[in-house]
């Protein structure tokens, strides 16, 4: 794990060929030379990868007639922008879905940010008997697939009467998770310990050091954790599927699927509105990535889940 | 222990208490419960009936769907993960050249990975429809496209296609790592007369193996737990041709309330993941290059 964190992304610099430098550097080296073939491949691949996205927009903008006739085209031919407002006024509780997603994700993000910082700091800085053994357990728990605990957790939450509430999806986040604890611990370990030693000499207690000295410095890692948690919770499908079966409680990720699965056999799902829902589900993720990418690069861990889809 | 030291230890346990409590309540407790539940026949409403190892023996000897799901999951993981990484590496290598508009290409290639899985599934439901755009494109080359999600031979390739759409995640990561490879290595190779192909396999690839290895492990673990796309797109059909471990487990637990059977299934899943991770680590010594090993 540690090797990966350190082996990952260096800061983003585009190595420029220096034509102004020595003659030998004048030309781009063979491996780095882009041929027409390179461009052709990149253009084709980018286009192929973007076709599904363009297709979604095309469906989202099509009329109900096109949906019923199932005559979609890859490039949009109709532009029913009102689908984006209509989606909130049909009998589909899309507004409710969106609000539920916001509530659940906010709760989860707050929970992880509050708890992971505290626990990670403790593991990095405070000395206590049994700490190292405990940290090995932290690392070991990362290996255990969620499916093992899925059923007993369901029973537990059912006994607590939490089924059909947001609580099973929010509350566990207030107890941090191993990966985030590990991230914070690594981050704090890299900060010079003179800082908290000086604070202690100045008479600050451990909580004071954490609250006043550490917390401000932890913001990059906590923001990264917030982004991970937000992405995971916003797109989570299985959790809501297990715990929420009341239509008004569903988050968007489940709601979008729910619409398609409950349509009558004879009547096709309102695909244009479903795709509007899918776009609403996707846009915040693009926004979050755009705003947060510098934190992710800073943390060098954006790839932890890359390719796991 | 001095008073100060004791106070520090106290604060440690206080600060770490969220994780400790969470570990006991949401992980350790449930794990122990899961072992017990897996040894019972239980529908979660009536009292559980202890049946010993029957759930395990039934899974391993009498349940053809379990073996089918296991095989399908293997198939899916064994193809989608290396394929996704391979494509990711190939694209990263292209982007690592002196291309204009690199950022634009990188963004376009990365974009699909930002789409949440549910939305991806919805998109592919339409893309893979018998008269959808994929078959339209195939039609241009006069290839008759199959009904992807409805045919038992094509449903797994269809799910693999969906996963490979997200290969851009690996691309961005590998590209960042490629930028960290010292240019002197390439300059030296150039002087020695190595061509671009040779340079890729003798410099770029070995330098990237640690990060490729990490992604391989994480990818395999994730692929073994594939759920949403199967649940949304195929429900394991047709004829269990796309049934996988976790959707099967989910059905047993939450559709049929076979809590004992599903718990046993979850432990077998864990065992499979563990074996594969260990195997991957065993092979790692042969192909993963760590700088520190070289003196």
UniProtKB/TrEMBL annotation, chain A:
Keywords: Cell membrane, Membrane, Transmembrane, Transmembrane helix, Transport. GO terms for biological process: transmembrane transport. The chain crosses the membrane at residues 37-61, 97-121, 133-156, 162-183, 221-244, 271-292. PROSITE patterns: ABC_TM1. One of its GO terms (cellular component) is plasma membrane. Residues 1-25 are annotated as: Disordered. Its main location: membrane. It is found in: Cell membrane. Gene3D superfamilies: MetI-like (1.10.3720.10). It is a multi-pass membrane protein. Residues 98-292 form the ABC transmembrane type-1 domain. Belongs to the binding-protein-dependent transport system permease family. This is Carbohydrate ABC transporter permease. It comes from Kribbella soli.
Automatic annotation (TrEMBL), chain B:
It is found in: Cell membrane. The chain crosses the membrane at residues 12-39, 74-95, 107-128, 158-177, 211-234, 254-281. One of its GO terms (cellular component) is plasma membrane. GO terms for biological process: transmembrane transport. Pfam families: BPD_transp_1 (PF00528). Residues 70-280 form the ABC transmembrane type-1 domain. InterPro entries: ABC_transporter_permease, MetI-like, MetI-like_sf. Gene3D superfamilies: MetI-like. It is a multi-pass membrane protein. CDD domains: TM_PBP2. It comes from the Bacteria. The keyword Ubl conjugation does not apply. Keywords: Cell membrane, Membrane, Transmembrane, Transmembrane helix, Transport. Belongs to the binding-protein-dependent transport system permease family. This is Sugar ABC transporter permease. It comes from Kribbella soli.
């Amino acid at each position: 794990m540690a090797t990966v964190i350190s082996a990952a992304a260096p800061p983003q610099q585009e190595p420029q060929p220096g034509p102004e430098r020595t003659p030998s550097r004048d030309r781009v080296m063979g491996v780095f030379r882009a041929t027409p073939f390179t461009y052709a491949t990149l253009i084709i691949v980018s286009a192929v990868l973007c076709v599904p996205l363009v297709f979604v927009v095309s469906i989202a903008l099509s009329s109900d007639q096109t949906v019923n006739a199932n005559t979609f085209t890859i490039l949009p031919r109709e532009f029913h922008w009102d689908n984006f407002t209509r989606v909130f006024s049909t009998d589909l509780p899309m507004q409710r879905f969106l609000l539920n997603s916001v509530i659940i994700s906010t709760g989860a993000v707050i929970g992880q940010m509050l708890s992971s910082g505290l626990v990670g700091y403790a593991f990095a800085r405070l000395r206590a008997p049994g700490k190292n053994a405990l940290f090995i357990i932290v690392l070991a728990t990362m290996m255990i697939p969620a499916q093992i605990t899925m059923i007993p957790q369901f029973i537990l939450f059912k006994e607590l009467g939490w089924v059909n509430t947001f609580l099973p999806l929010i509350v566990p986040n207030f107890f941090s998770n191993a990966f985030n604890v590990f991230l914070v611990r690594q981050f704090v370990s890299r900060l010079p310990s003179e800082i908290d030693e000086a604070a202690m000499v100045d008479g600050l207690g451990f909580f004071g050091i954490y609250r006043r000295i550490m917390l401000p410095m932890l913001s990059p890692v906590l923001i990264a954790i917030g982004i991970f948690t937000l992405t995971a919770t916003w797109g989570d499908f299985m959790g809501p599927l297990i715990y929420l079966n009341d239509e008004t409680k569903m988050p968007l990720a489940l709601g979008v699927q729910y619409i398609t699965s409950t349509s009558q056999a004879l009547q096709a799902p309102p695909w244009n509105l479903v795709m509007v829902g899918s776009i609403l589900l996707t846009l915040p993720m693009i926004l979050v990535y755009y705003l947060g990418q510098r934190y992710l690069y800073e943390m060098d861990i954006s790839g932890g889940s890359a390719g796991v889809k | 222990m001095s008073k100060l030291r004791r106070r520090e230890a106290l604060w440690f346990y206080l600060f770490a208490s969220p994780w400790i409590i969470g570990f006991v309540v949401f992980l350790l407790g449930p794990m122990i419960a899961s072992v017990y539940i897996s040894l019972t026949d239980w529908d979660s409403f009536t009292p559980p009936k202890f049946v010993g190892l029957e759930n395990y023996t039934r899974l391993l000897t009498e349940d053809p769907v379990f073996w089918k799901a296991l095989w399908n999951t293997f198939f899916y993981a064994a193809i989608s993960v290396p394929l996704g990484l391979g494509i990711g590496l190939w694209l990263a290598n292209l982007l690592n050249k002196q291309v204009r508009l690199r950022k634009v290409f990188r963004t376009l290639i990365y974009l699909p990975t930002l789409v949440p899985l549910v939305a991806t599934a919805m998109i592919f439901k339409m893309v893979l429809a018998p008269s959808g755009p994929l078959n339209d494109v195939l039609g241009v080359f006069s290839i008759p496209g199959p009904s992807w999600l409805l045919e038992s031979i094509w449903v797994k390739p269809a799910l693999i296609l969906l996963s490979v759409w997200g290969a851009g995640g690996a691309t961005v990561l590998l590209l960042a790592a490629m930028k960290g490879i010292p240019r002197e290595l390439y300059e030296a190779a150039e002087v020695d007369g190595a061509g671009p192909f040779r340079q890729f396999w003798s410099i770029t690839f070995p330098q990237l193996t640690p990060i490729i290895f990490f992604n391989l492990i994480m990818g395999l673990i994730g692929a073994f737990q594939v759920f949403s796309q199967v649940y949304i797109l195929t429900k394991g059909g047709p004829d269990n041709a796309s049934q996988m471990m976790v959707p099967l487990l989910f059905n047993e637990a939450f559709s049929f309330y076979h809590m004992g059977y599903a718990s046993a299934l979850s432990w077998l899943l864990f065992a499979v993941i563990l074996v594969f991770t260990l195997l991957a680590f065993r092979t790692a010594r042969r192909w993963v290059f760590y700088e520190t090993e070289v003196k």
